[in-house]
Target: TBC1 domain family member 8B
Amino acid sequence: MWLKPDENLLKNAFKLWVTEEDNEYFVLQRRRGYGEGGGGLTGLLVGTLDTVLDSTSKVAPYRILHHTPDSQVYWSIACGVTKEEINEHWEWLQQNIMRTLSVFDSSEDITSFVQGKIRGLIAEEGKASLVLEEDPEKFREALFKFEKWFELPPQEKLVTYYSCSYWRGKVPCQGWLYLSTNFLCFYSYLLGSEVKMIISWDEIWRLEKTSNVILTESIHVQAHGEDHYFSMLLHLNETFVIMEQLANYSIKRLFDKEDFKREPALSDPLQITKRGLEAHAKSEQFRTFFRLPKEENLLEVHESFLWVPFSHFNTLGKICLSENYLCFASQDGSQCHIIIPMREVINVERSDPSSRALTVCVRGKRALRFSEVRDYQRLANTLRSRCGISASPQHSASSEVIRGECQSLINHFEDNPEDVTLMVGQKDSSKAVSTEALMTVFHPQDVENLDPKMLKEKMKEQSWNIHFSEYGRGTSMFFTRKTRDLIVRGVPEALRGELWMLFSGAVNDMATHPGYYTDLVEQSLGTSTLATDEIERDLHRSLPEHPAFQSDTGISALRRVLTAYAYRNPKIGYCQAMNILTSVLLLYAKEEEAFWLLVAVCERMLPDYFNRRIIGALVDQAVFEDLIRENLPQLVEHMTDLSFFSSVSLSWFLTLFISVLPIESAVNVVDCFFYDGIKAILQLGLAVLDYNMEALISCHDDAEAVTILNKFFDSVTNKDSPLPPTVQQASVGSNDKASHVSVDISELIREAYEKYGNIRSEEVESSRKRNKLHVIQTLEDTTKQNVIRVVTQEVKFGASQLDEIYNLFKRQHFLCCYWTMQSPTLLHHDPSLAYLEQYQLGFQQFSVLFSLLEPWAFCSSKSTLSLWVFRLIDENQDGLVNFKEFCCTLDILYSGSFTNKLKFLFKLHLPPAFDLPEDGVIRKTPERGRGKVDLQAYLKQWQNEILKKEETIKDLPRINQSQFIQFSKTLYNIFHGDPEEEPLYRAVAHVTSLLLRMEEVGRRLQEPSSPPESAKPANTAAAVAVPPTEEASSTLERSDTCSSTNSQEAETDWSFSFEQVLASLLNEPTIVSFFERPVDLKTKLGQARVAQLKLKGIK
Model:
């Protein structure tokens, strides 16, 4: 590797370096302790220095220095890990530089020329790969170490690196932590003790910051049941964030199969950078806070003041700009924030250059004034271009008019703060697809009804109208603490749908996709999938007590929304609990609005909730357990096992308390959820447990605790609900309700906010990321245990051996996914399938892993024989091999009897393994996912497996001439390199000769009148019987070719049954003892574990 020329003084360096070659201008040196001899104590000291010092030129075993005869200064210009690598550089210098140097007159000119040439080479090398790194030169050095120490495939992309200490027990090892796209690596070398560690991100169970008495602050990584601690990091928080992002990126890419097409910085695993990860994390945080679509990315951030009319002062905060939105949040994020879609902006003006201010005019006669914006002119131009506002001369007249209107609005707000009625925006008037909100149809408000509940409802509406007049209405409304206070008190029935759309961000989705829902309904109409079958089954289970879903109107609307969403997002399709949630959405929102609300919930607000493994809900339950430990210590002391709360609270999270609370109370919870997200559900869960603390502490078992909570939920009421009894949901335990004091939902929610409102959304998101690793790995471990339990019944391997084989099998599945986003292997992983089918290997993956684990080294990853093995064990001929099929094959080769091993080898040379063309591996494309599932085919396959009888040796067909020749070749390949190679070759030759003579005698007995044709069998016998030297190999090839070109009559001249082959081989003790010799599987597994990552041919 060429290095940026660095000055060296060699006064004491000769103690550490040995000169290998030199000339007038260059010196090639080898580091003491490397190469021949090892270097003894000097080598140990040198190795320790190499690890601790931060310079590649001091670490590499070889280096090249430049000098001039009249100077004592040397310049390091190249280094190398191997002698071959450094010799390439040396030869290049000899051929391209040495001849040129003679033309220079002075030493300074020579040195300047050499340095310029080397810098040019470095720039050319790094032009493509290192252009995005912050410090390309240092990064090249770190990359050099990374490749040298860990020997990972060259595709692996190093993201960043840090100096740190790794704790082995109570002893710290100073070294370097390398974070790459797919691996966490650490290297340390101190006085002969080398520590090298490689952990893939998809194997990590826990990743968290910790502190204790010994380690003031460290990063804890748990993988493979082992705990690893890294400390003494100069930038610990930065390191942890990058590690968390890489682990999360790996989980999303490999387990969730999420693509990053819209994010160029992450779309290619080979181009991941620290900067790209940081930008992705900021964009994700930006979208979450402002509830924006997934397509939006944070492009610019500007610190500024915003004039807030309702408070009569400028509030400090940050302007956040994405492709289609201008957002502002005050400094603490809770005082106020506002979201302005670009489609709503009608003009942008630089109103006051002295205060660096700009004014944004929005539809609905609204204007926002930002001041003290550092780069306000560029920001104004950016906003204009994104909004399509022209600043050309021909529009100057209209611009002047708009500017005048904007300025008059600003002046009006500043001079007359009490008169802010102009800030009332226009409600969105987009037409609903078909129906009104079901609540307006089945429970229209009676204007003349003046009972106390209706009066209170009207008072709530009035409060909100006053709020709208002060803070705005619609997409550009200010969100403040007062907004949350109104939410906690309860949203009026008439405004619920509008506010849900606004708070969730669904209003923006619907506005930017006009006609989308109508098209989806038309396209999905009449489709028949597993999802639609499940939807039909659950339609009448959705709020069955409510009149809206006792009629065809409500049922049809529910069917259309759920079917359209399943068509839009087949990855989720349909999941139980979606019907209950959608039913409530349809009560208060129009049908199209309900669809977009469902999109917001499933894809943004509750990620990964609605799939087969409900990972999102399990993650939030783990977050909930953490919050219980922090906030309810008395409960934790009494109930040490908090998994009870996970099981009982699952429905709380999946249905937002709708399934456990009466509908009139549950909608208040949904109000809070749409405003505060999952934080509102967590707070309410804590409040419920806190309210029932004494009863839960005194209960004796889980059943009693469940009864206590169920009775509590039955006692929750909404005293302000204007709904009549016919609409209100009947409580399950209403008969004994009198024994419980009723609890008002508004009071419960208010208490939740008062006691637990200090929980920050950022902390919840951080806890989600931390717990997601553990949840996914727990699910993966459950899958592994189930698979091993099934396979154990079929093989003789122990549970620990199967565990190691499974880990290798799974890693092999993921290896080819590490370096590409579009790997077809990702299609082979479907968590919704049966456990055995979740991880499967295609031919390329199988051949690599099988070549590492098979006991006799007869099957290289590129050999034709590996293809035959793959075809033989791929019983259902779908081009994929599952774990059970793979293990059964290894079991035969390691633990099978001599007869079973020979039968396996015999079957390799029969159809379907032997005869198919080499490109015909995958015979049919397997159906994946939940789109179309042929249940009849599954039942038929299951029936065949039950009725399948054990194959006997008499069931095997006879082997013909060409197949037998190849069978003999396979035996020779197996015996190659064995200590008993020569006796084994002679035994095979003897057996083949004996079989051919037996066949010839048998044919003569059957046809006594035919003249003997001994030439062909004799030639074939000679070809097979000779051990496979180079001459014999060519003889075998000629014989094989000759046999394939002969007539059909020649092909059927002779053949052997398995019994004949078995009987002949049993008479050779050398062969029998070879196949019955035990093979150390543990050693093989250890070697495979090391070699698996080092294979350069991984694709």
Observations:
- The first strand starts at residue 2 and ends at 9.
- The radius of gyration is 37 Å.
